[in-house]
Each structure stands twice: as structure tokens, then as C-alpha cells.
Amino acid sequence: MYTLPEDIPVGHTRLKNSEMMPLTLPGTDPPPGGRYSVYDFFFDCERDCWRLWSELIDTTPIPSDAKFRRIIIPSIDTVRYSFLLDKGVGHAQPVLIVGPTGTGKSVLVQKYLYGLPPDTYVPPNVIGFSARTTANATQHLIDAKLDRRRRGVFGPPVGKRAVVFVDDLNMPQLETYGAQPPIELLRQFMDHGGWYDRQNCFRRLDDVLFVAAMGPPGGGRNPITPRYARHFNLVSIVDFDETTLGRIFSTLLAWHLDVRSFPNYIKELRDPIISATLSVYTRVAAQLLPTPTRSHYTFNLRDISRVMQGFLLLPPQLLGASPVQAKEKYLRLWAHEILRVFYDRLVDDRDRTWFLSFLRTVMKERLGAEFDSLFAHLRPQGAGGEGGGEVTIEGVRRCFFGDYMDDNEDPALRQYDEVTDIPSLTARVEEMLADHNATSKRPMNLAVFLYAVEHISRITRVLKQPGGHLLLVGVGGSGRQSLARLAAFICGMVAFQVEISKSYGPAEWREDLKRFVRAAGGDNRPSVFLFSDSQIKAESFVEDVNNLLNSGEVPNMFPYDERAAVLEQCRAASKREGLALETAVELWAYFVDKTRDNLHIVLAMSPIGDAFRERLRQFPSLVNCCTIDWFTAWPDDALEAVAMKFLRDVDLTPEQRNQVMLQCKMFHEDVRQLSEAFRSEQGRINYVTPTSYLELITCFTTLLGAKRAEVSAAKRRYEVGLDKLQFTASQVSIMQDELTALKPVLIRTVEETERLMATVSKEKTEVVEPKKAIVDQDVKRAEGAAAAANAIKTECEDALAEAIPILEAAISALDTIKPADIKLVQSFKNPPSTIKLVMEAVCVLLDIKPQRIKDPSGSGKMIDDYWGSAQKLLADPLFVKTLKEYDKDAVPPRIIERIRREFTSNPEFTPNNAAKASSAAEGLCKWVCAMDQYDRVAKVVAPKREALAVAEAEYGKVMDALKAKQADLAEVMGRLATLERQLERSMAEKSRLEAETELCTAKLERAEKLISGLGGEKTRWTEAAAQLGGQYECLTGDMLIAAGVIGYLGAFTAAYREQVVGKWVGGCAAARIPRSANFSLSAALGDPVKIRSWTIDGLPNDAFSIDNAIMVANARRWPLMIDPQSQANKWVKSMEGRRDLRVIKLTDGDYMRTLENAVQFGLPVLLENVGEELDPSLEPLLLKQVFKQGGVSYLRLGDTTVEFSDQFRFYITTALRNPHYLPETAVKVTLLNFMITPDGLADQLLGVVVAQERPDLEEQRQQLVVESAENKKRLAEIEDRILQVLSSSQGNILEDATAIQILSEAKAVSNEIQIKQQAAELTERAIEQARTCYAPCGAFNATLFFCIRDMAAVDPMYQYSLAWFLKLFVRSIQQAPRGGCGGAAAEHQRPLHLRALPEHMQVPV
To answer: Which pTM was predicted?
Structure first.
């Protein structure tokens, strides 16, 4: 600054001639402090005077339809920075703007650059740097927007300039030598006007100007080199002062209150609310500073905007009726939004307590309101005692505002309101969860409780806000993704998620991102992109998400052709909204704006490890652009609600259910404390997550149900077997009495039967057969007579067959004659000749006399005239009936002869001619002709009929005689039938008595077999049934503890397991939960036959390893075994080798193909030598995301859907001695510590030394072990078969010969095996006795191995494998002199072991 005029340089005449800068301005309000400073003025060269910056502030009112996110409130500071930026760009001078996060640097620059005149500037090229930005990517982003002007020269189109805006300039991380390659590339342009391309040719860039923005170094931002900074004009943006912030946010809030027509008494709260908000922000930013465990404790002005944005959600009509109620509700809304923005990210109760205390103070001082009074409904029950009834952390959990209680079907129309009825809210969420599960392919079995409702409410609040994003921070299994999916469903949004596969890379990632942003920006569909840290296969994924959060787009993600398609899609969408967008820049800006509005990014990350902290440092938008929701450990009410939901359907008494729930909570807390001790004492990390708790309860319900069914069925089979034996014993004497009583009855029945047989035989021979022969002869004669009569009858019918159709046709023709037709004929005075002819024939046939009249021709003679008679005949109403009933068989010969002579032989007498005259005449003519033809046939048939009558009479006589004889025969046959029935009943009785006698004898024999075979089992079965009954009563406690062991204790060593299991047994005893006195996992869930099979397959023979194997068999999740000595690896390979085990490693190129085939065909798979992270593409398999389609189970692995076989088994092993599995991995598997134990190793070493010293003894022992295991297995199978036969037989088992035979054979085999087993056990005891003399050697060397194993705690280089130790052990045995047996051998070998160890452990220096 120039303090005196003479200080102004020569040439600045306008400045020298102007007036001095005034300190006050008449007619204006005095500035703060009463005087202006030099920073309040600028020199206007056009007016040659000093002017206030405030004169340039745009005072245009905010449009009522403006989007909150796009509103910019101008201030003196923004005017200053825009002015300086304009001067720099206008004079082609690079400008670097530096300022804290949230001060609007990016918005300020982009608003200015997009407002540059298009005839001079091309659209600005906006590039956002991150920690992962490379020099190659930077060069590509800039070169892609430039044209080739001539060889080696590039730039925008000729006549225009290009401005490249680099945001977050100092974010790229330092390389090995401290440089930042992207910045060094930009410096090369600044120094030399261009850079080298990939072909090492220099590219000069013309008409290109750089503008950059960055935050102060620190927190992931690095200082830029001075050699680069010297090229820029530096503009420093400082934090807005409280006055400026107050004016900005007061303007925003006033606009909202005016637009939504809030009442004046709410508008009065504007300034106090803004003041209180700024106080909270200022104090929180100063008090809650970021630390390594609280790296997300960074606050900026965006947080204030999020609070303001929350006010936009509540409509004024829901405030309340009275002003007091409305003000209180509005203040509760303010407190709720403050809690959601600042409070939800806090990690522990200490910070939360401090925040509530400070919020209570702020509300009292700034708003004049008592926090505890406003939220009196959140106070604990019985408030007013100790603590003054303050609202606690627990009470704040019940503070809810949301739109989910609105029943409107359209989520966009639901109204945001306060929710105080927590039970109704919980029920509403459960209803929405049920709706989700009914329509989703991935239903979620969630328990809805207060903790879940809290986070669902927080997520839905952010999703309701345009451009709202979330960062959900919590350990794996805390429900982040499930609750986010449910919240998206509640908001009516589609939830997208990438599916990670083995081949998933940047190309597939970009394709997924394109799909998501096109759905949100192009289709204008509100969407949720759910992305978890377990899906991060490359950090470039996070960089793209960072860009989406910051700017709404990923640079150069769309190639030219796809970008053109997106622009066309947006052109159509914008026209539907009434926008006239034509240029590509406008359309792309529309697409980005819609994407920012509709695409809600929900990040699910774990705070465990360094990755979370590093990502927040490298990608600051993860914090700056997201509302953070910290998922704490489940509170007590959450644990109780989840337990009660899953225990609701378990068969327990209410008291037992409550006690089991309390025990589950105790287990959870005990294991958390045990994990802390395990970490401090052993250096091993184990995480206790909500998933572990769910696994405990799920495992308990599954095991209890299965074990109850198993024990109940076994007990029932023993009881049925005992009932059958008891019934058999009671039936023996009864059957003997029955057999004694049956014998005399059987003898008497046999005698009666023989007597009846003789009588029946005599009756047949002497009476029945002679009479039957006579009747048969008569029957033959009758059949001959009947045949003759039938032949004559057939001839008659054949002859009549010609005339009958004609007669029927005539009768049918008569039916066609209508009364009207007859009336018509009757009415004729002088009818036609044809009619007269027909009627004359009818009269002749009916034998009706004619009338005598004079001849009309005038001859004077009297002639016969039938017309008068015909008219009388026609007048008869029964005329047609008379014709139908005419006796055609009795026509006098004189009449029929006259008919043939005078009528039918007349050519004019035809039906056709008659039809011409009248239809009635036609029918009558047909009838007359039919009578004539029938008579001709009847004359031929008449003799035959007479013959037929004679034949039928003869046949009748024969039949009468035959019937008399048949009646006589029937009487005789009746007597014979009666005798035969008596004989049949007698024979049946005889057969029945014989069968009963035979069955009774057989049953006695079977009873003797059954009693002799199974009678000895009665005592043992009685004891077994009683033992199973007691076991059934203890199942509740035993299965609860077993579920705790499986769900929680897999990663712990034996000592820690025993410690906590002992406490759990005592806890169950105190809670009066039935349980066994001495709990062991092998007794609760183990099968002796299966355990022996496991040990034969190589499982170490100690309780710890056996418990691990039981957990593998009963756990719901696939096992991940910590196996540094390869014990589990060998065991699995031996056990599953018979089922075509597939062994894979993550380093195999085709391991995913192998896995897909195994899943489809039900083969076991062993994934060995994994590290501390698993391939994300395995997640669907680890989580068993099986779905049904067409009744078939399917699993989607990456981009392949394969059929899922129930026979598939998956085992994972790691050779790491002390792996650190993060919760995201641990919750997907069952972690098992398979490290060798001293007992197990001692047993193995004992086998080794015996194999070296007495190979014959060890070989015999191994053979006996296998035989013994096979014998016990067969004995168990036989007993199961015996009990199965006994329990499945229906009724009296003594009547089931097959069952008795099966039981006899099974018992015989069982006795044979028992004899062999007893001999084998004697031999095995003798061998064990011989082996015990070598036991000190095994125990000593086991101790030796654990001593050298623990040396790894001193230095990691002191790590020795068990295989190395075994080789050394065998070598020392071979080198030791033979010393006899036992102690002598051990004494000879011990010095060699001790001497061999240092020789192989020391490394010469």
C-alpha cells in the first residue's frame, strides 16, 4: 500500500490524481469498529475513484424455486475473490486460490469459469486431484480436451482460450523422493510451455491457462514446491468471520421461511437459531480435534449447510396449533438436526456427554430454551430424582424426525415430522421390512429394535435430501449395509451394489459406475449406490467415488460415443421439464446436476486398521461431502431385542427364555473382556461383533432344535424297543395256553370236515350227476327247436324289411298333413281329378260306400260318386288317426284287388302328381301305395308266420318239460350247495385253526429268539433311555454353552476357552437353566464313532483339536483355520480325500473355475495358505447367498450363476502364526485356532518314537485302531438298525417274520463283532502298556518344541515349523544308541535332542 502520494510510482497518474481512500462515507451505516479498513475498498479505474467492495454485491432476491444446493449468497469476500480471479484470467495470469475446506473455493471458481464468454473461451476443463492422481492421468485429462493445431502444437480451437481448473492441487501423495508427479508435470508446462508425450515428443500448449485451488498443507495435503508456486498469483481465502457467516445463513433461512410461508413467530427465531448453530460449529471444530482414532473429526462450513438443509424438510402446517407449541417443535427440530450432523459421528460416550452438555448450554444462552424441558418426553421414567431429570445419552436415542410414519404411497410426498411414539415407529419399520422381503430377491432376516430404527431414521433423513451422501462407520456385522438397503426401500429408491468377482477390475468398475450415474442423471431416478470397503479391489475405486462426491462426475469416464448418447438422453429429459438446452456444455451440466441430486452414495467402512484413516486423509471428500453415522457397539436393549426375536419361537418357558436372553448378553460381554485379555497377554486380536452375537443365538436355536429331535428320537427308539421286549415276554405264557386250547378243537374240526366230504361226494355221484345228464339232453332238444323257430322268424323279418320302411314313410307323410290342408281339400266343390282319384282310393281302402248320383255327362244313368263320402271322411277330426291305426294285415282281398286294378296301376296315381294338386293328397297317395306294397309282402310272409307259430308252440312244449326237470335239478343242486357250504366253512375253520396253531408255534419260536437275542440289552437300553431323558432335560443349557463356544471361542486357545466356559456353566447354574454338571463340547455335540474316524484321518488326539473338529462340523459358517503347523490341512485332506477334494490357492489362475465346479457338483474344496485378507469375489460363497429359482438352489459367484449343491463343503486354512483378521473378514467365517497343543503333540511324538523304536508295535497299533473304529462303527450301525426295526414295526412284532429274521441276523453279527472287539481291546491295552514306557520321550520333546516356538515372541526370525522339528526329532532318535525300552531310551535320546537343537538353530555370524 502507498501511504503518501509521493510513494506512488511514476506512470500511475490516475491513481496519483485520485482522491485518497476515505475512512468513512457520509450517508452510509458505519462499519464495524466505526472506521473502514483498506480491505473494504478497491480502485475503480473507469471512475478514477475508490469504491467499497460492498457496492458490487448482487442484491437480487433468491428465486423461490431455487435449489438449496445451488444457492450462493454473495458477500464482500466472494466479491473480492471473484474480482481478483477475473483480473488474473483476463490478463492470462495463473491464479492459485488457497483456503480452508468449506469456504467455497471450488464453487466460486467454477461459477466464474462457466460464466466466461463462449466466443472467447472454450468450456473450462475441471480436474480434481486426489492422493492417487498420477501424472499420466493428469496429462491425459488435459490433452484430451485440446486440438492439434500443427505439428507439435496443441491448444483449443484457434481464436479461443482454454482454462484448466485444478481443484485440490496439493492432494497428490509424495513419491519416494518427495516430489508430486502430477504437479511436476504442470510445472513443466509452466516452465517450458508444454510437456512430452508418450512417444517422447514435446507438445507445446498454446492459449492454455491454469487456475488452481487447494487447502492449507496438513491432514493429507502436502506443501507444493516453491518452484511451482512462483508461477501463480496467490489469492488466500480466510475463514469467514462470524458476521459474514451469520449474514449468509440468515439470508438462506429467511428465504426458506418466506417461501414456505412460516408464521412470524417462527421467523423471529431466525437470528437466534443461526447464532446458536454458529456457536455449536465453532466450539465443536475447536474442541473435537482429529486424532488417529478419530480421524473423521474434521468439520467445515458444509456441516452448517447440512443443518440448514434439515430445516427445509419440515412443512409449516405440521408445527402445531399454538405459537408456543410451534416454537418448541421448531427448536426440537433444530436440536435434532444439530445432533444428526455433529453428534452422530462421535465415537464414545465421553464425547457424547460433553456435546449434550454444551448443547444444553447453547440452547439456554442463545435460544432461551431449556433443553431438558423441550425434550421432557425423552427423560427416563421416574425423572426428578438423582441427576435432576436430565435427558441422557440413552434418552437422546429416542429423538426422531422423519417421514416414514406418513402412509402416502409416494415417498416423495411424505411429510417430515416429529415421531414420539417409539412402539408405533418400530412396528412401522417392521411392516416396511416385511414389504421389502416380500418383493426382494435378497430378503433380510432382521430384528427391528431401537438401535436399528435409530440408524434407519438417520439414513432416510439424508436420502430425503437432494445430493445427500452417507459415511456409515462401524465394524463388520453391525448392520450397516442391511439397514442402508432397508432405508433405500423405505425412501422408494433403487439400491445399487457392485458384484466383485475374480476378474473384476477398473474396466468393470467404470461400467458399473456408468450404469449407476445414467440411471440417476439420465433416467432421473433417485438411486442409492451402496459401497463397502470390502469391495475396494483398487484404490482407484475410492478416487472415483471421491470425484462423484465432490463434483458429481468422474472425469473422462464416458467415451465420446457414450457421452453423445447421454447428451441426447438429457436433451429429451430437459425438454420434458421445459428447459431449452442446446449446447453440449449445458446438457452435460444438466446431467451432472441431476446426478448430484439423485445419486446418493452410501459408504460402509470399518474404523479398524489403518486403511480407514489413510483413505480419509487421501480422499477428504469422504468426510467433507458425507454425513457421518458412527455405528457403536450394540447397547443392552439391542442385544435383548435381537435375542427375544430369535428365541420367540423356541420351545422354552417364559422364565427360561428370559434367562437365556440374559445369558446371551453375559456371553457377549464376557468374550469382549476375554478378547482384551487375549490381546494384552498373547498379542492376538479377536473382535466381538454383533454378527458374533447373532451367530450365538442362531446356532443355539438350530442346535437345540436338532439335538432335541435327535435325543427324543433316540430315547423313543429305546423305549419302543423295551416295550417290544416286555410285550414279547408277556406273550409267551399266553401263546402257550392258546396253543393247548387250540389242539382239541382242531382235531374235532378235522373229523367233521372228513364226514362232510364223504356226504358231498355221495350226493354228487348218486343223485346230481344222473339228473344233470337228463336235463342236458332236454336242453339240447330245446336249443334245436329254438333254432328252427328263429330261422323262420328271421325269414319273416327279412321279408318285412322291404315293406316296413315304405309303411313308416307313409305314416311320416301322414304326419305332415296339416288340418288346414284337409280343410282346403274338403272345401272343393269340384275338386281336381287327381284329388278325387286319391280320395276315392282312400274310401275304397276304408270300405266306405259311394253315393249314387246322376251322371253329369247327361246320360241319365246313376253312377257311383265318392266325393261326397270323401268330404264326410275329411270332416272327421280322427281322419288321420284312423289312417295310422288302419289294420294293414286284414285288408279284404276284394278291396286290395280293386286298389291294384283301379288305382295303383293307374299312371296318374303317383305321389308326385298328387303333390301338384295338394300336399294332403300327396301324403294320402303315399299311404295308399304303402298299403298296396305291404299287402304284397304280407301275403308272402303269412305262410311263414303260420310255420313260425307252429315252431314256437313246439318250442314252448319242450321248454315246459325242460323247466320242470331243471326245477328238480335245482332243488338237488341246492341241497348239494348247502352241503358244500358246510364243507367250505368246515375247511376254512380247519385252515384257520391250523394257521393259528402254526402262527402260535412260530411266534413262540420268534419270542424265544427275540428274548434270547435282545433280552440282555434290556438293562443297557433302560439305562440308555434314562440317560437320554436326563440329557434331554439338560439340552437347553448345554446347547447354549455349545453355541457360545462355536460362535465366540474358535479363535482362542484351550486355556482361555476353559476359563470362560467354566464361568458360563456357573452362570447357567445361577440362572437355573438346566445343564450338565460337567460341560464338554465333545459330550454335548460329539459322536464317538465320528471322532474316532477323525483321529484316524489325522486329527490330533487331544480335547482341544477334537473340539475344533466339532465346531467345523456344527458351525453355520465355513471354517477358517489358523494352522501354522498344518495339522488341520493334513486332517482335511485325509478326511475329504475320499470325496475328490479340490485343493486351491488364491494365487491359482483358475481357482474360481475350480470353485464353481465344486459348488455345482457338491465336491469339497480346501482353500489353503490364505493371508489376512480374502478375495472379495468369495463373499457370496462365504455368506451363503443362496437363492431359489424354479425350485433349484443357485449361488452367484462374481458374474456367474451356478447351481448350489447341499453336498458342497468349503474349508479355509492359513499358515500364519498370528493373523489379524479384521471384523469384515471374521464375521464371514468361523475362525478356529488349530495350533497344536502340548497333549496333541506329545501323542504325535510318542507315535513317532514308537514307530522308530518298535515299528512292528506301532504298525499293529495303527491296524488295531482302524479295526476298532470300524468295529465300533458297525456296532453302532447294527444297534441303530435293531432299534429302527423295533420302532418301525406295526402291531405285534412276533407276527413280523422278516423283522425277527433281521433282528436275529443283526444280533448274531453284533455278538460276533463284540467278541472281536473285546479281543482287539485286550491287544490294544497290551500295546498301549508297551507304548507308555516311551511316553516321557514324547512329553519331553513336546515341551521342547513349545519352548522354541515361543522364541518367536522374542524376534520374528525365530520361527520354526513342526515339520522341521519332526525331522530333527527323527534324526536324533536314529542317531541315539539303543537303550532298551522306555525311560532308558528316553535318557539316551534326551541329550541328543538338546544338542541337536542349538546346532540347527544357531546361525554363524
So the answer is: 0.72
